[in-house]
Write a structure and sequence with these properties.
By secondary structure, the protein is α+β, with helices and mostly antiparallel strands. The chain has three domains: about 250 residues, Thrombin, subunit H (Beta Barrel); about 80 residues, PDZ domain (Pdz3 Domain), CATH 2.30.42.10; about 90 residues, Roll (Pdz3 Domain), CATH 2.30.42. Strand 9 and strand 10 form a beta hairpin. It starts with a strand and ends with a strand.
Length: about 450
Amino acid sequence: MKRNIFVSPSLLLLVMSISIIMSCAGTTQQPTDVELLSSIENAFVNVAKRSTPAIVGVISYRQSEDPRSRRQEGSGFIFQEDGYILTNEHVIRDSAAIRVQLLNESVFEAELVGSDPNTDIAVLKIDTPEALPVLPLANSESVQVGQFAIAIGNPFQLNHTVTIGTVSGKGRSLLPDRGIVRYQDFIQTDAWINTGNSGGPLLNIHGEVIGINSLIRRPDNTPATNAVRAGAGFAISSNLVEKIGTQLIANGRIIRGFLGVSMREVPEGVRIRSVVKDMPAHLGGLQRDDVIVAYNGEKIRDINEFKMWIADSQVGGESKITVLRDGHERIFSVTIAEMPALQAGRPVETESVAWRELGITVRKLEKGDAERYTYLTENDRGVIVDTVHENSPIPRGTLITAINGQNITSVQELEAVIVLKQRQELEQLILEVKSSHGTEKITVPLKR
């Protein structure tokens, strides 16, 4: 295995400063310069030795006519000893096959457990006969600007390269939404991160993961897609990583609450720039230029925290939103919906029978849905409406339990029933559904 260690200029300056201070303090009971530097060096070496067995190379293969774009390489690390691995979503995006290489150069076919484009986090699973070494996650709230940071990954196919620097900043948010809603909590570092580092860990001096290395920003503030040696590196905070990774392992996907507004941060809170028609904010009475100052009684401190509050809200639950309008405070009750597929970074299956005939796409009922939807229980069976056409009478987030008296338990059953009713030349379908409005029946015309 190839291993290289690079030390950032800031770290060299720090070590030189410590050396000068110690030499000026006298020699009595003080370590020598070499002893001090050796102690620091050993600390870094020990972290690298302990950590590298749990760090993996990730290779994804895409279906593409261009051979150069078929193979995507990145890094990852073992999250649980039974083979769960954390990496970046962009490393495995659009992959047809994924392989994982361990420190001993053994290669495994990996299963994609789940991915979340909104946070750029993905979970893989490999099957091995023995327990695997893991990296512990630190509490990123305790990370301090100025502390040491150690990045390990596979840039340029140089396996298990170690770079050392400091934490340069916390709580960074730098990617625009542009179609999907971003949830960002980046730790900034000057430890070098290059192509192939994506998905690898950023560690503290104790060998704990404080973040997943995700991206680089050039001095002109544009994303770095090729090899660069200038700019800041950013890692997704470990607290966000643990939250998303745990949910992906449990459910395979992330269910988020959705308000349906675009907004910007202002000193008082967040100002609504636009409201999406027929989405929760619009239905609840919120308007453009309202300034949201509190959510369920909690004062809004910044826009990213507010977005997280909305995302964590239960689908179908009622939230109290306090706004400033024309100089006066007003409180609105808003029923939170599930984030639409497109904003969540999921494709819409517009070629499905359900989309063509009913103007909806559906997904299977997941085991985590009962926790995220106020109107569902563990005993419910059916399919969830994921996307709706503009004129569809079926609300998004609705659970379809039966069609014309026939129980529905899967996407395949729903589409088979629709096709069968078409062949019987029926003019309409009667859907038995469950939503925040309760249990009801909806009559939908069937296209002929």
